[in-house]
Write a structure and sequence with these properties.
Layout (H helix, E strand, L loop, with lengths): L1 E9 L7 E4 L4 E8 L5 E5 L6 E4 L4 E12 L6 E7 L5 E4 L12 E9 L10 E7 L3 E4 L9 E11 L14 E5 L10 E11 L2
Antiparallel strand pairs: 1-14, 2-13, 3-4, 3-14, 4-5, 5-6, 6-13, 7-8, 7-12, 8-11, 9-10, 9-12, 10-11
Length: about 200
C-alpha cells in the first residue's frame, strides 16, 4: 500500500500559490478542478515547477509543482529586533507556530553587538502579535543591539503550561499558479508518496 494524502480547497477570488504539507516525500500528485473538470498531473520524474494538463494535453514548465522539504522549523525566524519600550521582534511567520498574547517565548541563536547590559537571547512575554511582528511586554532599551539571525519559540502558554518542542517543517509540495487552479475554483489533490506503507 502506498502513502496517500488528499487535499481539498477553494481558491480565493485571486488564486495564489500554496504549500501542501503531506508529511512525506511525494512521488506523484493528481489535481482535479471540480469547477472546470480539468485534470493535472506531476510526477517526481518531471522537471521541478512543471505540470501536465491531462485534458488538453499540454506540458507547462513554469509555476507548476515543486517539491518542498524543509529540514527543521522549530520556531519563527527573526529578521529584526527593535530595542524599545516595549521591544519588537520582526519574524517570518507567527501563525504557523501558534504564538499568542501572554505566551512566554525564548529568543535564541541571535547575534547581537554585545554592547548592552545583556543579550537579546533571553526569555520574554508576548504583549501582542501580528502576522510578522511580536511586541513584547518587556522593554529592551539598554540591551545589546540586534545584528542578525535568531529564532523565537514558545516556552509556555498564557496559563504557564509548557509547550513541547515540535518540528513544524513542511515536507510536501508547492503548487504554483499553473497547478493551483483558477480564481474561486474548487480543487482536489491526491498526493502519492515514494515509499510504501507496510
Amino acid at each position: 500500500m502506498a502513502q496517500i494524502k488528499r487535499f481539498a480547497w477553494t481558491n480565493p477570488s485571486t488564486a495564489v500559490a500554496r504549500n501542501l504539507n503531506v508529511g512525506f516525500t511525494a512521488a506523484k500528485i493528481e489535481i482535479y478542478n471540480l469547477t472546470t473538470a480539468a485534470a493535472l498531473a506531476w510526477t517526481a520524474d518531471m522537471a521541478v515547477a512543471s505540470i501536465f494538463n491531462v485534458g488538453v494535453p499540454a506540458y507547462t514548465t513554469t509555476n507548476g509543482v515543486t517539491p518542498l522539504a524543509q529540514d527543521a522549523a522549530y520556531g519563527a525566524t527573526i529578521s529584526g529586533f527593535t530595542n524599545a519600550a516595549p521591544g519588537v521582534l520582526t519574524v517570518n511567520d507567527t501563525a504557523t507556530f501558534g504564538f499568542a498574547a501572554g505566551d512566554t517565548i525564548k529568543v535564541a541563536e541571535l547575534a547581537d553587538d554585545g554592547a548592552g547590559t545583556s543579550s537579546l537571547n533571553a526569555t520574554f512575554t508576548i504583549a501582542s502579535i501580528t502576522s510578522t511582528t511580536i511586541t513584547l511586554v518587556e522593554s529592551t532599551v539598554g540591551l545589546s543591539a540586534y545584528v542578525s539571525g535568531g529564532i523565537v519559540t514558545r516556552v509556555s502558554d498564557t496559563n504557564g503550561v509548557a509547550i513541547p518542542t515540535e518540528n513544524f517543517a513542511i515536507r510536501g509540495l508547492t503548487l504554483g499558479t499553473s497547478a493551483v487552479g483558477g480564481n474561486s475554483e474548487s480543487m482536489v489533490a491526491v498526493v502519492y508518496g515514494e515509499n510504501s506503507v507496510v
